[in-house]
UniProtKB/TrEMBL annotation:
Official protein name in the record: 7-cyano-7-deazaguanine synthase
Source species of the chain: Desulfosarcina widdelii
Domain of life, source organism: Bacteria
SUPFAM superfamilies: Adenine nucleotide alpha hydrolases-like
Length: 376
């Protein structure tokens, strides 16, 4: 795989950084990938080789490319990190992902030494990122250099990530509207970012198990003229770690000397995170966990992610305290629409059984127990 023609260009009211991807082993035409943001932040967006190297590495491994080549120089720290990432991927895939050769000159100097930069956090609107922001808000003074000044909300993941489902910009606008008061309450600037890097390979398992953390890191590198630290919330806690696109072994390795990436809060369970978010009223009334992207609601209340979150809130006695869901109680029949024994979801449900029984919801506890016995 070769990356070429890295440049910045205008795209209507947006500023876009672009690279062309040429496949060497895969019989496919060259593809253009991009990362873009609003013109307000144009001076902080760079056609950084780090962004596209990180963003393309996992698809290159997936397609069996033997090398990743570019003419622009990359940080030796990043090169070492990506070699570690490739070793992890080789192990996770039982040898299916063979490490490739990174062919790029190495930077001899530090970048952005003459710029005052800031910390940022990826803010999807889900419980993981909101809990991370609440803890930063509570534990760091706004004057601390690690306190985030920016909240990065990315289009091209759960919204606009699956090509066949369309871009759904109206859903993204709704997510922006929900996160705007949250960011404002924490004193952050909300920075919307758009990317099509996921479309290099639309395989869902690859995205979830190996890829999405790298694309978050790619976005951060594209904004490296503005930020020097990116906070990334954990997806799973330590007892339930497994191969995942965002992982405490992976995420820091996508950083460079100029950009630190921190994976945080792997010591917290999902229920602990919900309690943290419930203690922040602005976030608790505006969270967004839904993956269905329905036209008229922030959270549909019926997809697996919504129902699981509602069950968690029901177990904590908090479901009727938020307007993020239209319903104040969960019907056991809603669980019939999906399986709960895929993608390491079982622990999320297992920890709900006892607190639901304590709250007198034996019907829900029994339904979960029954669903946990279902296997392919």
């Amino acid at each position: 795989m070769k990356l070429s023609d890295l440049h910045v260009r205008k795209n209507g009211d947006l500023a876009r950084v672009v690279a062309t991807v040429h496949f060497e082993e895969k019989n496919e035409p060259a593809r253009e990938i991009f990362i873009e943001t609003e013109a307000t932040f144009a001076d902080d967006l760079a056609a950084h080789p780090h962004a596209f190297t990180v963003g393309c590495l996992i698809p290159a491994l997936y397609f069996g490319e033997r090398r990743l080549i570019l003419e622009e120089a990359i940080c030796p720290r990043l090169k070492e990190g990506l070699e570690t990432v490739m070793a992890i991927m080789h192990h996770w895939t039982a040898g299916a992902f063979r490490p490739l050769t990174l062919e790029a000159p190495l930077l001899k100097n530090v970048l952005y030494a003459d710029r005052t930069r800031r910390a940022a956090i990826f803010l999807s609107g889900g419980m993981d990122s909101l809990a991370a922001l609440k803890l930063l808000k509570d534990n760091y003074a706004p004057s601390h250099p690690a306190y985030p000044n920016d909240a990065l909300l990315v289009h091209g993941f759960d919204i606009g990530g699956v090509f066949e489902r369309g871009a759904k910009y109206h859903v993204f606008e709704r997510a922006k509207a929900a996160m705007a008061p949250v960011a404002a309450d924490a004193g952050l600037t909300l920075v919307p970012v758009y990317t099509n890097i996921r479309h290099l390979c639309d395989d869902r398992d690859l995205w979830l198990n190996q890829f999405f953390g790298a694309v978050l890191a790619a976005v951060a590198h594209a904004l490296a003229p503005r930020i020097d630290l990116a906070w990334l919330a954990s997806s799973y806690d330590i007892p339930h770690l497994h191969p995942c696109g965002s992982h405490p072994l992976l995420d820091p390795e996508y950083g460079s000397h100029d950009l630190t990436i921190r994976h945080r809060d792997a010591g917290l369970s999902r229920m602990e995170k919900l309690r943290i978010v419930a203690g922040w009223e602005t976030a608790f009334q505006n969270f967004r966990v839904c993956l269905a992207n329905v036209p008229d609601k922030l959270n549909c209340g019926r997809c697996e992610k919504c129902v699981r979150t509602m069950l968690e809130l029901e177990a904590l006695g908090l479901l009727d305290k938020t307007r993020a869901f239209a319903d104040d109680a969960v019907d056991p029949a809603w669980l019939d629409a999906f399986r709960i024994t895929i993608r390491v979801r079982e622990p999320f449900y297992e920890e709900l059984i006892a607190p639901l029984r304590r709250r007198g919801r034996n019907d829900l506890a029994e339904k979960i127990e029954k669903k946990l016995t279902e296997r392919d």
